[in-house]
Automatic annotation (TrEMBL):
This is Uncharacterized protein. The keyword Nucleus does not apply. InterPro entries: MFS_sugar_transport-like, MFS_trans_sf. The chain crosses the membrane at residues 27-50. Its main location: membrane. Keywords: Membrane, Transmembrane, Transmembrane helix, Transport. The keyword Iron does not apply. Belongs to the major facilitator superfamily. It comes from Dryococelus australis. It is found in: Membrane.
């Protein structure tokens, strides 16, 4: 928060600009671009590093990828080896039982060991 104020104090009062054929980048536009860099970099890093969610993968029939992601999650959460994950098969079913009626907008899957 204070970093943005410091950057603004340095950049915005400047009188220089960058002229491009379609736009003139004044100091305030450059300040906005600099302040957006952490968000853009974080978004790109997240998109490249994080796997798809198991629910998304199951909904699209990617059972092997689902099992791989769940094994990795198991290893990270327990500190155990991925090979110790006891689930080896998936059974997909829609939310039809009365217990699951409040999840009407979501697909559910059952993991069978």
């Amino acid at each position: 928060m204070y970093a943005h104020a410091g950057i603004a104090w340095v950049i915005i009062p400047q009188t220089w600009s960058v002229d491009l054929p379609w736009c003139t980048y004044n100091s305030w536009r450059i300040f906005v671009a600099i302040c957006s860099l952490p968000s853009v970099l974080g978004c790109l890093l997240t998109a490249c590093v994080l796997p798809e969610s198991p629910k998304y993968l199951m909904a699209h029939g990617e059972t092997e990828k689902t099992l791989k992601v769940l094994r990795h999650m198991y290893a990270l959460n327990t500190g155990s080896n991925e090979d110790n994950y006891k689930v080896n098969q998936h059974a997909f079913y829609p939310a039809t039982k009365k217990f699951y009626q409040h999840f009407a907008y979501y697909s559910h899957f059952l993991l069978v060991s």
